[in-house]
Amino acid sequence: MSQARPLYLGPRIRRLRRELGLTQQAMAADLDISPSYVALIERNQRPVTADLLLRLARTYRLDVSELAGEDSADDARRVGEVMRDPLLADIDLPALEIADLATSFPGVTEALLRLHGAYLREQQVLADRQLGREAHDPAAPDPVREAQGFFAAQRNHFPTLDAHAEELAIEIAEDGAAAEWLRKRKGVRVRYLPPEVLVESVRRFDRHNQQLLIDDTLDMPTRKFQVAVHIAWSTMREEITAIARAAGLSGRSAIALVRRNLAAYAAGALVMPYDRFARAAQARGHDVAALCGLFGASFEQVAHRLTTLGRPGQEGVPFFFLRVDPAGNVSKRLDGAGFPFAAQGGGCPLWSIHEAFRRPGEILTQWLELPDGQRFFSIARTVGGEARHVGAPGVMRAVALACAAEHAPRLAYARGIDPAGVPATPIGIGCRLCQRAACTARALPPIGRELAADDQRAGAAPYLFSEG
């Protein structure tokens, strides 16, 4: 008769205890065992019995599967794939040892998988350089690009989340506020605590005490949004998970990104319910500042929400959304307007989103024209920048909303203006893809153009190109 193998869950128990904010003594008291026994379990010197597993689940309101480590089999499979790498072919690691590693040492397993992933990515970069190709192969797995592609394919519109959020918003309004809804309907108390107590978190759910802990230095719109994110996870987790699974993503990182962004989408839909927000956006000419006041949301939250209005019969202006830092790095991109932004490299320096950093807090409007003649209207403004407390860095970014020129008259910013008669700034998708030879702002020559071998002439543009 086969004998059941002991269950060692030391790292998982330690991680659970720390997430709950408990000492070993406190956990021991909760479970009616000795602190030394807790210490032995966490060091994998004692197995977790079935009785203790049930006691943990009952005391801390957990699903037993969360403790038993359903993902250990998947981790074992991934470690097995790593061990088939030709570099490791001479190492004999039996399947049983791999399973033991994944089950008993999940932290070490995750570290091994991350290191191997980083190794593979660096190998790809080196191979690309040797072959004279771009440093990033578009076919290589990139979780950020994959997640962006998924949201672009869905036009950043998820009807099931919007519908559920509208129903919840009605309940929350009946109870007076989101915090009161959580207290009445979920038994969760919202507390605002100093950042040193939360230790590098702005939101943390204390499952043991049924408390939602929020950084008390956050501004009111961000506080409101963080509470809404928790409500989204509490009530729409199944829908979020189903959408992420159906996306056909290639790896855990991409799935995690999509799930997190879907939760943020749902939170935005709670703060700004679709029907009410769409009507207000139409009535106010998509005036972002006015909508901020109406819904108690930040400029970025409203701009983001404006990209999601794709409900049939109640569509909003199709917007493209971009967020950049002062160095030009893109940290968020949402496409509902068919704007052909470069997947690699920086954007065009002639776009006013970059000028916004020199005029913080001011809304900048601009008419844009791409090399192929497409015209767009853009609004841009900085967001953030203020330090939340002494010692905290202030991070400033700029966000831009752009729509096709024909939609611009629907915006308060361009009302009464004929798009056809307005001069537009000629911009490019990116220097490598822009064929405007005379551009003085160019940083790199475009693909496919030969530089002129002319040492007798200097042009205003950084590069001279041959005519052939």
TrEMBL record:
Location of the HTH cro/C1-type domain: 13-67
Key words, A-Z: DNA-binding, Transcription, Transcription regulation
The keyword Transferase appears for this protein: no
CDD domains: HTH_XRE
Family matches, as InterPro entries: Cro/C1-type_HTH (IPR001387), HTH_RamB (IPR026281), IrrE_HExxH (IPR010359), Lambda_DNA-bd_dom_sf (IPR010982), ScfR_C (IPR018653), TransReg_Diox_bact_type (IPR050807)
UniProt cross-references to PROSITE patterns, sorted A to Z: HTH_CROC1
UniProt keyword annotation of DNA-binding present: yes
Cross-referenced SUPFAM superfamilies: lambda repressor-like DNA-binding domains
Transmembrane regions listed in the UniProt entry: none
Family: Belongs to the short-chain fatty acyl-CoA assimilation regulator (ScfR) family.
Protein name in UniProt: Short-chain fatty acyl-CoA regulator family protein
Organism this protein belongs to: Novosphingobium bradum
